[in-house]
């Protein structure tokens, strides 16, 4: 008896299709694996060239405070100190998370505890649209709204770390909120019911029960927000003023790792020291992003252990 | 009694925070649209940019953005759905699957500028293409694959297991079951995921500066031959998108009306984002109705 044409056998056409389909999906996954491996490989090999090919001292690079890549050797040699940019990156990341963290978590609590029906229906699209707005539009708004405002009310040029912090805070707010909502939704309702049954008010339940139960989730939310802030390039570049010196106040023009790469990568010749140094900055950025990813995984694992 | 007062005060605080977010969004959209909408006209949307004087249009950039989106989705959707099928249907718990999931997680959290720099090495230098729309589309594909894979996997997993079993019990092959039974049911979720991905790709700029470039050659819109260097449809030409243009005119500051031009371009981007969002919502609802009605 002959098998039905749709039934897979090893030698039928259908069986061939079956294996071909499987191979195609495996290939799609392979694209991602190869891409991630290649990203690390290429950025590492280019980024390390500064130290192994151009023999720039790693410590001078990481802890130097002078960035003068075009200085000739008779004038004291080119200087590739990137500490001001590293500090800039950490300052904008830390402060924007400090602003967006509490507000985002608060908005998430509003959506899940205070007004779970209409509040969620209203806020969900608000957050989705805020996430969807392109970063250049945030940058442009910062440039035409926040910078002039700071110039008038805080003094200075308006361009600077503070402008970057404010723009980033708005940008990471929806990220923090939506991950916090997920964390709060995962809290078993029995725990809350138990708290209310003991006569606790809503705020007592939120503060004493929910804040503890979803603490790992909130930490994850803030780390994701920080990762986004640390890696954002264009919006920050448009408002931060691109100063090259060690920042001494939040109102001064400064730079971050990403803004320096953005500004200079196109103006330097591939293979030159000036260019390789930018790749070393990219390597720093990649390493820092990896740290954020591992931090999220670690917190997630800890959270699961705690709830067990 | 104080516990109740504290509770009331904190409730008010939470209302304030929620109101802040709504005001933020409404203010932001209102500002962009109020500044940008008056600028929008047929001439602005279709005329070419000026390099030094006022009166720039955004015609070529708008075209580049749409064409780039098309190219990006051409790669992202099949590969993303393929990855989603693998993870939902074939992957078994183990080291390989863990590695794949970790890779997707890493790729989704990498800053877009890092993906752009990778694109610069591979699609610009290594292939010898220089700045091209194709390179930009491939970089955007890498950037958007995690989202596409994740949404497709979720949609495929949501298909009831009985449907697969029924199909397999009839002797239908695994792959046929996937393509003819599972994918049609998962389609609404996949389409919603694709639209969300498209919205993200449309506004992305950092990954494109170093891959698709910041210029557009003189385009002849009557030339439809995709191999001709002046044809807008040639994927191997530099192509600055709208989002890149907003960044460029503001950071270069060569044209006197940079702010007005970017206000117009920003309004176009924001309207596009809103449309993508509405479309995803609308389609999700339509599909949902159809699917639930079909069960009756």
Automatic annotation (TrEMBL), chain A:
GO molecular function annotation: phosphate transmembrane transporter activity
Which keywords belong to this entry? Answer: Cell membrane, Membrane, Phosphate transport, Transmembrane, Transmembrane helix, Transport
Q: Which family does it belong to?
A: Belongs to the binding-protein-dependent transport system permease family. CysTW subfamily.
- Matching InterPro entries, A to Z? MetI-like (IPR000515), MetI-like_sf (IPR035906), Phosphate_PstC (IPR011864), Phosphate_Transport_Permease (IPR051124)
> Which named protein is this?
Phosphate transport system permease protein
Q: Which GO terms describe its cellular component?
A: plasma membrane
Instruction: Explain the purpose of this protein.
Output: Part of the binding-protein-dependent transport system for phosphate; probably responsible for the translocation of the substrate across the membrane.
Checking SUPFAM superfamilies in the record gives: MetI-like
GO terms for biological process, alphabetical: phosphate ion transport
Compartment(s) of residence: Cell membrane
Q: Which organism is it from?
A: Hydrogenibacillus schlegelii
Domain of life the protein comes from: Bacteria
- Signal peptide as annotated in the record: none
Automatic annotation (TrEMBL), chain B:
Statement: the UniProt record of this protein carries the keyword Transmembrane helix: yes
Instruction: Report the membrane topology from the UniProt record.
Output: Multi-pass membrane protein
Domain ABC transmembrane type-1: residue ranges: 62-280
Compartment list: Cell membrane
Q: Which InterPro entries match?
A: MetI-like (IPR000515), MetI-like_sf (IPR035906), Phosphate_PstA (IPR005672)
Q: Which domain of life is it from?
A: Bacteria
GO terms under cellular component:
plasma membrane
**Stored Pfam families:** BPD_transp_1
Could you state a single Gene Ontology molecular function term?
A: phosphate transmembrane transporter activity
Q: Recite the UniProt keywords alphabetically.
A: Cell membrane, Membrane, Transmembrane, Transmembrane helix, Transport
A biological process (GO) annotation for this entry? phosphate ion transmembrane transport
**Residue intervals passing through the bilayer:** 12-34, 66-88, 100-125, 131-149, 267-288
PANTHER family named among the record's database cross-references: ABC TRANSPORTER PERMEASE PROTEIN YQGI-RELATED, PHOSPHATE TRANSPORT SYSTEM PERMEASE PROTEIN PSTA-RELATED
Q: Which NCBIfam families match?
A: 3a0107s02c (TIGR00974)
Family to which the UniProt record says this protein belongs: Belongs to the binding-protein-dependent transport system permease family. CysTW subfamily.
**Protein's name according to its UniProt entry:** Phosphate transport system permease protein PstA
Origin species: Hydrogenibacillus schlegelii
């Amino acid at each position: 008896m002959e098998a039905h044409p749709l039934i897979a056998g090893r030698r039928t056409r259908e069986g061939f299709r079956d294996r071909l389909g499987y191979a195609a999906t495996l290939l799609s996954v392979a694209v991602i694996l190869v891409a991630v491996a290649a990203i690390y490989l290429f950025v590492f090999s280019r980024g390390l060239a500064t130290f192994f090919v151009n023999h720039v001292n790693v410590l001078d690079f990481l802890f130097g405070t002078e960035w003068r890549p075009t200085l000739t050797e008779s004038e004291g040699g080119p200087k590739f100190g990137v500490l001001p940019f590293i500090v800039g990156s950490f300052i904008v990341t830390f402060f924007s998370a400090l602003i967006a963290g509490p507000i985002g978590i608060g908005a998430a609590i509003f959506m899940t505890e205070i007004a779970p029906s209409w509040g969620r229906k209203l806020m969900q699209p608000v957050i989705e649209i805020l996430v969807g707005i392109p970063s250049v539009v945030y940058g442009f708004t910062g440039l035409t709204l926040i910078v002039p405002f700071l110039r008038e009310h805080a003094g200075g040029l308006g361009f600077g770390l503070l402008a970057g912090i404010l723009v980033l805070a708005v940008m990471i707010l929806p990220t923090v909120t939506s991950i916090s909502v997920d964390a709060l939704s995962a809290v078993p309702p029995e725990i809350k019911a138990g708290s209310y049954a003991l006569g606790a008010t809503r705020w007592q339940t939120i503060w004493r029960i929910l804040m503890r139960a979803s603490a790992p989730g909130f930490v994850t939310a803030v780390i994701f927000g920080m990762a986004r802030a640390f890696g954002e390039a264009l919006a920050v570049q448009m408002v931060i003023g691109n100063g090259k010196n060690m920042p001494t106040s939040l109102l001064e023009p400064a730079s971050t790792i990403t803004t320096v790469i953005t500004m200079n990568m196109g103006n330097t010749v591939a293979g030159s020291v000036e260019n390789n140094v930018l790749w070393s900055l990219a390597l720093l950025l990649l390493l820092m992003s990896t740290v954020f990813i591992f931090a999220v995984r670690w917190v997630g694992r800890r959270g699961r252990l705690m709830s067990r | 009694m104080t516990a109740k007062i504290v509770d009331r005060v904190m409730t008010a605080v939470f209302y304030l925070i929620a109101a802040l977010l709504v005001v933020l969004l409404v203010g932001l959209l209102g500002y962009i649209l109020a500044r940008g909408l008056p600028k929008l006209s047929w001439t602005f949307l279709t005329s070419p940019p000026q390099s030094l004087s006022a009166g720039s249009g955004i015609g070529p950039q708008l075209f580049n953005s749409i064409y780039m989106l098309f190219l990006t989705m051409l790669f992202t959707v099949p590969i993303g759905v393929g990855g989603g099928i693998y993870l939902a249907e074939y992957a078994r718990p183990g080291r390989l699957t863990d590695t794949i999931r970790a890779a997707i997680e890493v790729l989704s959290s990498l800053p877009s500028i890092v993906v752009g720099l990778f694109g610069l090495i591979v699609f610009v230098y290594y292939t010898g293409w220089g700045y091209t729309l194709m390179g930009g589309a491939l970089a955007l594909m890498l950037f958007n694959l995690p989202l596409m894979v994740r949404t497709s996997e979720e949609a495929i997993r949501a298909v009831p297991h009985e449907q697969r079993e029924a199909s397999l019990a009839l002797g239908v092959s695994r792959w046929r079951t996937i393509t003819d039974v599972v994918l049609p049911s998962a389609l609404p979720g996949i389409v919603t995921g694709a639209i969300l991905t498209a919205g993200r790709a449309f506004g992305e700029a950092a990954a494109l500066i170093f891959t698709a470039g910041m210029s557009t050659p003189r385009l002849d819109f009557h030339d439809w031959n995709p191999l001709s260097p002046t044809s807008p449809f040639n994927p191997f030409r530099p192509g600055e998108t709208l989002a890149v243009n907003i960044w460029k005119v503001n950071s270069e500051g060569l044209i006197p009306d940079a702010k007005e031009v970017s206000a117009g371009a920003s309004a176009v981007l924001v309207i596009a984002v809103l449309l993508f969002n509405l479309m995803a919502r609308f389609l999700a609802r339509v599909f949902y109705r159809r699917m639930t009605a079909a069960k009756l």
